[in-house]
Amino acid sequence: MNQETVTAPGEPIIGTAHFRTMFPTTAHGVHIARHAAERRLAAQQRPESGAVADGGTATASLLVAELTVNAALHGRTRGRDARLALTPTPAGLRIEVTDARGERPPVPRPDVEADGESGRGLLLVGSLADAWGCEPYPLGGKTVWAECGIAVPRACGPTG
User: Fold this and answer.
1) CA–CA separation, 114 and 52 (whole Å)
2) pLDDT of residue 65
3) From CA 99, how far away is CA 152, in angstroms rounded?
4) Which residue in 25, 112, 115, 159 has a CA-CA distance of 20 to 30 Å to 121?
5) What is the pLDDT at residue 148?
6) Could you report the per-residue pLDDT of 101-118, keeping only the tens digit for each?
7) Is residue 113 a part of any domain in this protein?
C-alpha cells in the first residue's frame, strides 16, 4: 500500500510525504519494492519539486536495496510480508524495513572474507547512513532503519 499524508496549514510538515509498501520476502518482491521506492525518490527530486537533482537519491537507493535484501535473506518467515517505509525527517530521509524475524537482530560482520560474495551489507549501510539501528516491532518482528541527509520535499505529487 502506498500512502501520502498531507497536513493542514500551520501543522508541522515533518512526515508529510510518506511512502509505504508491503513486499514478499523474495528476490522478486525486493525488486518490486526497491524500484517503487526509487521511482518515488526520483519523482520527489524533479526540478519542479524545488529539490536539487540527485540530492542523495543514489545513497538512499543503495540503503533501500541493502535493507530490503537483508529482510528477504534474514527476515523471511513463510506467509509474512515485509514493509518498506520512507519518511522525511528534519535532517533528510528515514528508511525503515520491517520483517517478521525479531529474534534475528542485524549484526555487522567485519570479519567477512575479502573475496566473499556477501556479508558486507550492514557495513555498507553503516558507512552510507548518517545513523542506523534496529528496533523491536510489537507483533514479533523487527524494524531496521537508516537515516540519510537527502533533500526530500515535504509535499509531493501522487504516490508511485
Assistant:
1) 36
2) 95
3) 25
4) 159
5) 93
6) 888 788 777 676 666 566
7) no
For 138, the domain range is 19-105+121-148
Task: Please tell me the distance from the alpha carbon of residue 23 to that of residue 65, in angstroms, as a whole number.
Answer: 13
Residue 37 lies in a domain: yes
pTM: 0.77
pLDDT tens figures, 5-63 = 333 333 333 334 689 999 999 999 999 999 999 999 888 765 554 444 455 788 999 99
As a whole number of angstroms, the distance between CA 62 and CA 16 comes to 23
155 HSE (CA, 13 A, CB side): 7
Residue pair 51/118 in contact (Cβ under 8 Å)? The answer is no
Give me the number of domains the chain comprises.
1
What are the φ and ψ backbone dihedral angles of 150, each rounded to 5 degrees?
-95, 145
Least Cα distance to 144 among 100, 111, 81 occurs for 100
For residue 92, the one-letter residue type is: G
Distance CA 36, CA 6 (A): 20
